[in-house]
Amino acid sequence: MPFVDSTIWPKGVPRQLRVPNVTLGHFLDTAAQRYPDKPALVFAEREISYAQLRAQVESVAAWLQQALGVRHGDRILLLSQNCPQFVVAYYAALRIGAAIVPINPMSTLPEVEFYAADSGAEVAFVAQDLLPRIEPLLGRAGAPSLRALVVHTYAEGLSPAGVQTLPEAMRFEPQTLQGAGLHAFAQASACTAPVQDSGTGPDDLVVLPYTSGTTGHPKGCCHTHRTVLASNIASQTWRNLHADSVFLCVAPLFHMLGMQNGMNMPMTLGGTVIMMPRWDPVRAAELIERHRITVWTAPPAMVIDLFAQPGVDARDLSSLTLLSGGGAAMPEAVSRMLFDKFGLSYNEGYGLSETASFLHANPIARGKRQCLGLPTQGVDSRIIDPATLQELPVGEVGELVTRGQQVMTAYWRNEQANRDAFIELDGQRFFRTGDLASVDEEGYFFMRDRLKRMINASGLKVWPAEVEGFMYEHPAVHEACIIGVPDDKRGESVMALIVLKPEQRGRVSEQDIIDWSRERMAVYKAPREVRFMDSLPKSGTGKIMWRELQEREHAQRAAAATQEDA
Fold this sequence. Notes:
Elements: H1 24-34, E1 39-43, E2 46-49, H2 50-68, E3 75-79, H3 84-95, E4 99-103, H4 109-119, E5 123-127, E6 148-152, H5 160-165, E7 182-184, H6 185-189, E8 205-207, E9 210-211, E10 219-224, H7 225-238, E11 246-249, H8 256-269, E12 272-275, H9 281-291, E13 295-297, H10 300-308, E14 322-325, H11 332-342, E15 346-350, E16 360-361, E17 374-375, E18 380-384, E19 398-403, E20 410-411, H12 415-421, E21 422-425, E22 428-439, E23 445-450, E24 455-457, E25 460-462, H13 464-471, E26 477-487, E27 491-500, H14 510-520, E28 529-532, H15 546-565
Parallel strand pairs: 1-12, 3-4, 3-5, 5-6, 6-7, 11-12, 11-13, 13-14, 14-15, 27-28
Antiparallel strand pairs: 1-2, 8-10, 9-10, 10-20, 15-16, 16-17, 18-19, 19-22, 21-22, 22-23, 24-25, 26-27
């Protein structure tokens, strides 16, 4: 990798990273001592101070220990939209040495069942509206079986005016919980017993986010307090963030982008989080103006929505000093618009669930557009030939491999995946990202393609093999091939190429397949487009030639776009 010259490296940012030898909870304790009355969270007109947040965390942590018998090393599922209860549950779990397994709220029951089985979790925090996606696992015979569900509503603790700011579907009242194993979150937060010390240390497991693999089977990424803090400390130093930073949290907290930038980083700094339960561009602009938000990390799709809405020019968004994100490249035309109209540069970075989000970033004062940026403090990234593992020269495209303190310790209980993902170079352990990239003469990295077969839909990974597995469960499907197609808003979206069984032709429509898919998998995974075909091309070994199909579809769309412009 080319040495990054001092004229390019951000001034005042050290080349190496020194990670504090403490836990995430230490920073919440410190913020509560330093700024007890300062708002930690603002959600739907409700302010929660650092002292109040820490008190709630202590209550729920003690209740988990004493009422549910949760112990050091246990895993706890967390299924919810963004809300204060998510933050409390997360920090309560790590307070007693347990680890959180964050789950996408769009997940279906079979997907949640897999996470429970693979992680070995027996307890879950869940929002009331999502109960149908997890309650069938409560107390059932056979594995996986959950023994307790702690249920919250988004309107808990809100004023009537605050409730009205929530999306209508989230304004429901708490229902009466009946049956063994169902517990109200309010009951847990009312606990007055003290927390028993669990001996939690910086190298204990803290969060287990799942990311899919090339086989389609989700894999848990083992992150400790140390790996999560490495990402946070590096990011806040690189971007000059501090205790008076005000963060807009709207990226989903179950995803590493939102979890780190909208929750963990503000907690380590003692900053203030303005939290939104769901994306609403009009509401976001209002909150930025009213609360003088300074920092917003979001995928490009959200940024485009915010600045494309009618009337945004009339809003005072001048407090916004840092606009950053990743997961997909920001279109060049949008980058120009942000700078020309609002004086903002979108600070693009690069990271994965396996690296606790922050890995590469562009220098604030010397960024390049549609660029992954530089390897940040202490990170060693290289471009190698994926077959020979030899490092490639500047400008050549190869696989991006990396090492740094924020890289996960391992995939959870998956030795084969670990053997595939980690290699040794020059006596050091490197993680294979599976992304094809190149590096220029100044040390900036650029994404070129994906080595793994993956679709990137608004920064969320979709693995065709997993979706194809679902598609083959449809009684009318004979063959299926899932490809990624360009999407102006999401970057990519999912398309299914289907060969129907002969007796089903004319009896099943493309929309039938789409509707069926959305009932069985998360919406972002389900095909948005379906095309019926007479046959699918295959290689000499009988494998469906997905790359040929995808390239053909891309070429047809590009040609059609050219004709429209002519």
